[in-house]
Amino acid sequence: MHTTPHTPSPTPPPIAIIGAGPGGLTCARILQRHGIPVTVHDADASPLARDQGGTLDMHPDSGQAALRAAGLLAEFAALSRPEGQQMRLVGRDGTVRFDAVPPEAVDGDGNPEIDRGRLRELLLGSLTPGTVRWGHKLERAEPLGDGTHRLHFADRTTSETRLVIGADGAWSRVRRLLSDALPVYTGVTFVEAGLDDADTRHPRLAALTGDGTMMALDNNLGLVAQRNSNQHIRVYVGLRTDRDWHERSRVALDDTDAVRAYLLSRFTGWSPDLLGLITDTDSGYVNRPLYALPVPHTWPHTPGVTLLGDAAHLMSPFSGMGANLAMLDGADLAHAVAKQPTLDEAVAAYEDVMLPRSAEAAGGAVEGLDGAFAPDSAQQVLAHMTGHH
Fold first, then answer.
1. Given this model, what pLDDT does residue 8 score?
2. Could you give the angle at which helices 116-125 and 22-33 cross, rounded to 10 degrees?
3. CA-CA distance, 161 to 147, in Å (whole number)?
4. What is the pLDDT of residue 3?
5. CATH numbers and ranges of domains, the chain
6. How far is CA 227 from the centre of its chain?
7. Which residues pair with 39 in a beta bridge?
8. Considering only CA atoms, which of 284, 261, 39, 277 is closest in space to residue 162?
């Protein structure tokens, strides 16, 4: 009887990262620089399956430090927009109250901006081809004892790993192994809009926005306009409101006219120039309620699993720290794996640094959001920007 020889399946790498965001990719890149095998699994069908979101400012002591460790700082500098550090605060009447480019930005330091999509391309391009498995949505991770986990994916495939790193964002599947915590609605919703070819098609709004970020905040409402690459301006219409505002107001989120009319009713009395950020959208409206994990979010050290980025410490964007912390987490975890004698000791060393750091940042994010969406938000934010707080 002739039998086909059994081909053993290739041994999976000892480390699996769930999620190809900035934190997971930074971790994978630095592990590979140390010669440590790793696989990244991402639910998206391809790198271009969805819009990657707006622009990020990379801080010297976190995002830029991680890029330096990844050997990508020069490439980042070539793609970044130092002029994007301009911050402008405008009153609801359209008058500019504060407008500055931080001095360090002029000297080539500071927190230069980069589009999320460009940052992801930079990180993906630095990995060994085939590192990321696209269309690989994690359904659950099953502990097998001894710190090993079997990963079950939506396409019915499985793989085993000695360390599963949850870099899978706000609604992380990996987090369930460590914590019952779930993100909680912060009380603030952003409705996102967008202006294309802004300098040509929307010159007044482009001039109002400037080269960086423009904020107009007053009495639990806000308009934030953020310059992106390719003359695109992202607009966030912020409201302190209940999460189901659209159901209560009988507004269908896919009815652009109805959303526009509702938002204008909330911003009655604001300057017509500012209201153009609502009315002139080229991309419709996307409802984005802001969620955050409880502060502090911690868990008992558990062999074979850890978290980084939003999976570990989801916070409001008013920290300005989300992606920066995720990348610093990824760098610190990769360095710990390279240095420590065992994976378990590496995870323990990493969590000792990451958990207190993220709790402090998340506390700051709560304060930042509460200050920006308060009855006296215009005064609070102006005092913060001018250093009188």
1. 40
2. 20
3. 9
4. 45
5. 15-82+111-181+294-372 (3.50.50.60), 184-292 (3.30.9.30)
6. 17
7. 16
8. 39
Residue 8: CB partners within 8 Å, gap ≥ 6?
none
Mean pLDDT, the chain cut into blocks of 10 residues (389 residues total): 45 86 97 97 89 77 95 91 78 90 61 85 97 96 94 96 97 97 97 94 93 90 88 92 96 96 97 96 94 96 97 87 93 98 97 96 89 83 70
The answer to whether 87 touches 103, Cβ cutoff 8 Å, is: no
Q: How far apart are CA 292 and CA 361, in angstroms?
A: 12
Contact status, residue 290 vs residue 186, Cβ threshold 8 Å: yes
Can you name the residues that pair with 138 across neighbouring β-strands? 153
| Pairing of β 213-218 and β 184-195 | unpaired
Helices 343-372/322-339 angle, 10° precision? 170
What CA–CA distance (Å, rounded) separates 198 from 211? 12
- Angstrom distance (rounded) from CA 67 to CA 61: 10
pLDDT value for 52: 61
d(CA 63, CA 265): 39
Cβ contact 186:291 at 8 Å:
yes
Q: How many residues does the chain have?
A: 389
Residue at 241: amino acid letter? T
Contacts of 160 (CB under 8 A, 6+ apart): 12, 144, 148, 149, 150, 151
- The structure tokens 């909330």 sit at 266
- Tokens 């107001």 belong to 249
DSSP code per residue over 160-204: EESEEEE---TT-SGGGGT-----EEEEEEEEEEEESSHHHH-HH
83-121 burial: b if 16+ Cβ within 10 Å, else e? ebbbbbbbbbeeeebeeebeeebeeeebbbbbbbbbbbe
Instruction: List, in sequence order, every residue forming a beta bridge with 151; answer none if it has no partner.
Output: 141, 159
Which single residue is written with the structure tokens 């402008």?
88
Predicted TM-score (pTM) of the model is: 0.90
pLDDT at 12: 57
Residue listed under structure tokens 């790198």: 47
